[in-house]
Amino acid sequence: MKVKRLNWVKQWRDKDVDFWRSVCFSDESTFEILQNKTQFVRRRRGEKFHSDCVVQTVKHPTKIMIWSVISSKRTGCLDVVKGMVRQDQYKYVLQNRSISQLEEWFSDGESYIFMQDGALCHTARSIKAFLAEQNILLLDWPDKSPDMNTIENVWELMKREVGLKM
Predict the structure, then answer these.
(1) N or C: which end of the chain has fewer CB within 10 A?
(2) What is the per-residue pLDDT for 105?
(3) Beta strand pairing status for 113-115 and 23-33?
(4) If we measure between CA atoms, which residue out of 139, 166, 150, 128 comes closest to residue 27?
(5) Whole-number percent of the chain with pLDDT over 90
(6) Residue in 92, 98, 96, 95 with CA at minimum distance from that of residue 115
(7) Residues 143 and 119 sit within 8 Å (Cβ to Cβ)
(8) Which of 86, 92, 74, 82 is nearest to 130 (CA)?
């Protein structure tokens, strides 16, 4: 895997800033609603079950999967996906939201390159065929390399903000 990542870097390292501005990074992330936080409370003897010293927890918090895309131009809409992303759901999001967003962002004749990771729903033959039919250029991506995808920084910021609001 390290060799593939290194080869990928060597392949793309000479690209200029304008090239990277044309890349649209996409991915999905899971968010936990009502996630349990460790919170310590100082209590006196006899306050063990006092309401100020007890925090209700959720054994199985609700999880939602959100998919989006970002580029140097804008951030895309957030698409909530039920369960794990399957190829039919992914195609629906691409067809009904994402491609039109990308075409709007790059409407002045600029070309763009679409980045998706190696998730099975992204690499399915039907998805590759659909993207080819739409004349969408794909940026090849090394397996198991989410740390190289800039949208992961957005997900991290969102999770931090969601955690603060809960």
Answers:
(1) N
(2) 95
(3) parallel
(4) 150
(5) 62
(6) 98
(7) no
(8) 92
